[in-house]
What we know:
- 2 copies of one chain form a homodimer.
- Helices cover 32% and strands 20% of the residues of chain A.
- By secondary structure, the first copy, chain A, is an alpha+beta fold.
- Among the domains of chain A are: 38-152, Uridine Diphospho-n-acetylenolpyruvylglucosamine Reductase, domain 2, CATH 3.30.43; 159-275, Uridine Diphospho-n-acetylenolpyruvylglucosamine Reductase, domain 3 (2-Layer Sandwich), CATH 3.30.465.10; 279-380, Alpha-Beta Plaits, CATH 3.30.70.3450.
- In chain A, the strands form 4 sheets. Chain A has a 7-stranded antiparallel beta sheet with strand order 15-12-14-13-17-18-16. Chain A has a 5-stranded antiparallel beta sheet with strand order 5-6-10-8-9. Chain A has a 4-stranded mixed beta sheet with strand order 1-2-4-3, covered by helices on one side.
- In chain A, a hairpin with a 2-residue loop joins β17 and β18.
- The longest helix of chain A is centred in the last third of the chain and has 23 residues, at 403-425.
- Chain A starts with 18 loop residues before the first helix and ends in a 14-residue tail after the last helix.
Amino acid sequence: MTRRRKVYGWGYQGESLTAEEEGAALANFHRLFGVDRFEERPIPALEAIRLPAPRIGPPSSLGTICSTGAYDRALHSFGKSYPDTVRGLEADYAATPDVVAYPRSESEVAAVIDWAGSIPASITPFGGGSSVVGGVAPALWGDGCKGAVTLDLSRMDQVLEIDPVSRAACIAGGIFGPALEEQLRPHGLTLRHFPQSFEHSTLGGWIATRSGGHYATLHTHIDDFVESLSVVTPRGVVKTRRLPASGAGPSPDRLFIGSEGTLGVITEAWMRLTPLPRFRAGASLWFPDFFAAAAAVRALVQAGLSPANCRILDPGEARNTGAGDGQAALMVLGFEGWDQPLAELLARALALAADYGGRQEQPEVRPSAGEKWRTAFIRMPYARERMVPRAIISDTFETAVTWEGFKALHAAVTRATLDAIREATGRPGQITCRITHVYPDGPAPYFSFHALGRHGVLIEQWRAIKSAASEALLAQGGTITHHHAVGRDHRPWYDRQRPDLFAAALGAAKAALDPGGLFNPGVLIDP
Amino acid sequence: MTRRRKVYGWGYQGESLTAEEEGAALANFHRLFGVDRFEERPIPALEAIRLPAPRIGPPSSLGTICSTGAYDRALHSFGKSYPDTVRGLEADYAATPDVVAYPRSESEVAAVIDWAGSIPASITPFGGGSSVVGGVAPALWGDGCKGAVTLDLSRMDQVLEIDPVSRAACIAGGIFGPALEEQLRPHGLTLRHFPQSFEHSTLGGWIATRSGGHYATLHTHIDDFVESLSVVTPRGVVKTRRLPASGAGPSPDRLFIGSEGTLGVITEAWMRLTPLPRFRAGASLWFPDFFAAAAAVRALVQAGLSPANCRILDPGEARNTGAGDGQAALMVLGFEGWDQPLAELLARALALAADYGGRQEQPEVRPSAGEKWRTAFIRMPYARERMVPRAIISDTFETAVTWEGFKALHAAVTRATLDAIREATGRPGQITCRITHVYPDGPAPYFSFHALGRHGVLIEQWRAIKSAASEALLAQGGTITHHHAVGRDHRPWYDRQRPDLFAAALGAAKAALDPGGLFNPGVLIDP
Lengths: 527, 527
């Protein structure tokens, strides 16, 4: 692969919003904030970035798989969160790793860990680097820690073995989404896990962060697709048994799923696959308001229908993504199947939705509202790098809550976020909501907010807004994250959400596997 | 409740197999073993049982909720495994608890734990006592341990709160299956979890042991129905947050689901419920052989059909339960639904099954083969107490394995078990197989074996057979248990199946929650 990923911004070098896309986004923000122009700061050129001198260097035995080059170190300095992007704009590379290692095998992973432990240096597992929660920035921890090594898994990028009878494959953790699907396609199989970051994130990263993918119902997270894992820890390799299910004690896999690189690094996984769906049926539906749409989604999922997609967008979200005019809420509904045509299932879902005022968009409209939203959704990550230089604070956060608690949570979070925007920036902003995944007992609401900040204090302003929103989420019974992970950014709320004694148990488990506290210190739990 | 549970055998005092049922079972065994009569030993009367003198007694503050009476101590001496029943026959009450506590609240649970810790005494959580793996027998551990306290949760037996919007309920851990369903029924809701032990097991026990229930596909274990948990540990109470889903670190619930009373005691859980199904459709199907039926089940589940029931029985199993003549394999197929009639789904499943030689039994046959099997299945636990006195060794074990590995596992387990029966007892026996739960990547095979043993050495003979079967399971890639749990009986194989470093992590977590090693020592993990 000759394309290189950007150090500042999303995707590959040379990729960005089109002028038209950027214009549309800016027009929205001009209107929203009531300003004619934005004060735009220049993006620092890669060559102009000054990195701190490396504190440690790799031993000669690891020389061929380690880099101390400026591009590698800069690329691994942080993820793609809002504050990360501000740091990029401000050329703040304080958290740069000293060494980036690119192991090609479990034994090379183990060798890097052994070396890092001997220094000692912290170890940050790195897949695609798409973390939006401060999960991949290197950190030193404690007095003894002398440096930071980032373990980039991207050379472990193959589908290693396929079991077509059981429909599963053993896949290396460093494989990116597109390569994974490409290598499975000749076998007629798919993992069918498509997070927004799909192109720029890896299987190991998905598992480590409990990524949310394609399915809006039933199996929403990557968790259920994991058949077994290989994890390299400082104490050795953990290989769990390939099993369709087990009742033998607490699930070993579930300890590592969501461990965010704190217990070791996920090098391989046997994953459950499906053939490509043979049948698809879908519709875009408009509802008088968001809560009517939410009631319809609840009815759908509680009736036992399990659409692959039943995302709903509030009117503001629909307008911001070009799918609507801001007057109605949108449901993007889709069924996928392997065995039977889905027309009847769709008809039943439409009838249920109609009970809540949902009316189907004319099927011949092209692109449909759903398609418009989908295009905007995929392009969304490219916007941040263009808006931060204009001091625009745009970010998203997500949660899950019971149906009983949903409306109160929505109200409290909306109010807290808007108040915080006004207080932090001195002017009104916007918050919109969609529901991305749904369960019989509750939805996963996904919020986007927009504020006009001020250069020099963007991170502080962002943090004030983020904190207010997070406080409200927590107070209303939500989780601090449904599928974005905890990282360092969510720690204060995660620490309160998680039972103290579970933290004690998790900390003890970490100490058993990583006694030196090398792995991702400060993420999820203190070493 | 005035009915008392039996100390020896299954169910309530006064309940047993009918003479007809017993006759049918014996006729089978006469034919199988080629003997005219069995040497029958008498069952010791409760009054004749001599229990060891209590080593400790409860403090006066706990007097009202504690018992040192003979019935209570005898009842809590073991579970319902094969060796437990032999011990009952032999009046071997060496493992009797000194004190049985019946707390009514979390604070009383905590008080009992504090008292036990102060002695120290081991603590054995006890729900219905239906463990078939040695999970509820009290044990002393280490030199300092001075006694054994059993914590019987049966007074914490209420549905505490219902959230009808989110379709969930907070339910006390000590509630038995029938009371749980009875208390939910007026609200039109059901947990719909029906393990074979339903009548004599509790919600807390189901969660602690990862019980397998009603659904043959999708959500087979209790695990997925747990929304949140309360667990009382020696360090305090762990209360997880009610969430439909979360991506915030490794799941706290999953650490306690399957912890088998080693980390603390599950006192409450918010559980996901459904309304009673409105539609049912099912059929009994006959297949030329078991592997044709297995191929059909695989096709069904991989096609994305999700029958509530698709159990298959090999010809021997079908005959032993009175459902068949031993010439054909049986599939008991059932769909349940809430929103739509299921005739088309059933028709599609029948068509798929026909591809593998499955032919439907005439629907007007009553009772159907499936109904006959179901009756036998529910009555099965009552047989053991009548067969053990005749030195008949009958037991079951279950596993899960990939479809790729299923046939080889079936062959190896069958051979190893039959060989071990012949070697241990000097005469041939029988092994049969059914599949109880199915997954896209593999089935959960459930084996039953029958041998004619000799009084005085029944446990040794049983252990030789069980060990041979377990070795074969493990060697062929299976799990030592799909839903019967680990207990003490499965420890040798569980220890090899589970990654060593996971054991280290689990042990560290246990030490963090139960530093005195009070809870269920020797089950799942050593303290």
